[in-house]
Amino acid sequence: MRKPRFLFSAALIGVATFAACDRSPAGPPPAPAPASTGSVATFELRGDPDAPEVVQTLTVYPTEVSVGDVVYFIVVEENRSSETLPGWRVGFPEPVGSFGTLSSAGFSTRYKAIPEEPSDLFCERGVETRPLEPGERRITWRGFCEVPPLEDWNAPFFKELREKLRDAPDGVPVRLTSSFFGPDGAPLSVPLVVKERPDVETRRLEDWLAATPERLLPIIDEANRKRLRSEELPLDARGGVRVAGRSFDPRCFVRFSFRKPNRPNAPRTVDGWRKLETVFSPSTLRDEITLTRLQLEYYNAPEGEASDAALMILLDWLQNRPEPQRDVMSATLLENSDHLRKTPLQKKNANLCNALTSASKSATVSTDDAE
After folding, report:
1. What confidence tens digit (pLDDT) does each residue in 227-240 have?
2. Is 208 helix (H, G, I), strand (E, B) or coil?
């Protein structure tokens, strides 16, 4: 399997050393704030006519969100025959961001999500295969859609959506049209409900957007994809996330393209992330903040029992998330491992990645019913 294509220089990611370590309070790390809840929806996809015994499904979580939240997707292929299928495709390990087109009845606009790449340099992936055993289910694609990304907060569709939400306390029905096809051969359309976010949270998002310089927001290039203006952005020692006595770029711990928050709005200490976690109500937006906070608790914990306990809290939290969200988040953590190479966090990160990989392998042959 090739290495993920989203690579940053370790020298750019962790650049400043502090005289004193960022010490976590004594005792175990606080438990995660209540996580998001909601429905998991599964849709059958058009199958491969040459392999009718393999059922393909698109699974979505959640189907009801607030403005600013994230929706997660996975495609699963399951061999429902009693025969082993040799040379079956493995799929792509990296999450695909900015997925689908959002529309709603009566709207004058629609929003087409544009995928973001961290740079215009990437490796092509060859087709990788391995046998698909009887009863085995394999995640072959994973993606997410933010509703909306921070930089698209004022896109016409979302301006219209926020206006209509003023008179729709139960939310506005929205359809996300995907690049996948249903059994009838038509593009699959996923029904969602988008609700208004509490005023204090909405103001926080708007403040983050206002405080973000244009150089930190993506541009749309000639290939119609988002990319950062430059990966070579200098990191002020006062502007990074302080972990184990060093300042790290927030991109080490935050899902790529997620700016709620990222530079320059990301809290600088684990305590700052704890406080931020309490600002937002249960939602997938807060889940992303929780995931960052749990990583920082782990990396800040002294080696030994404290570190083991913090790792277990992180893994347990992930295990209890619905499968689409858990899989995308786990893939993100594996992807971010390149950021932490040749840093003091490399060993701890390797332990985390090994645990995630082991959990992923054990889940590929059983049906997941997380809700």
Report:
1. 887 655 555 556 68
2. helix
Long-range pairs for 358-363: beta carbons < 8 A, 24 or more residues apart: 359/315, 359/318, 359/319, 359/330, 360/327, 360/330
180 vs 45: CA distance, rounded Å: 7
Residue 274: which H helix or E strand, with range? helix 270-279
What's the token pair of residue 364? 């590929």
- pLDDT tens for residues 145-199? 999 999 999 999 999 999 999 999 999 999 999 889 999 999 999 999 999 999 9
CA distance 263 to 239: 8
pTM of the model: 0.88
* DSSP line for 243-303: ETTEEE-GGGTS-TT--TT-TTTS-SSHHHHHHHHHHSPSSHHHHHHHHHHHHHHHHHSPT
R_g over Cα of the chain: 21
Q: How far is CA 104 from CA 56, 196, 323, in A?
A: 27, 15, 27
> In a 3-state reduction of DSSP, which class is residue 110?
coil
Q: φ, ψ for residue 144 (rounded to 5)?
A: -150, 160
Question: How do strand 187-195 and strand 64-66 relate by DSSP bridges?
Answer: parallel
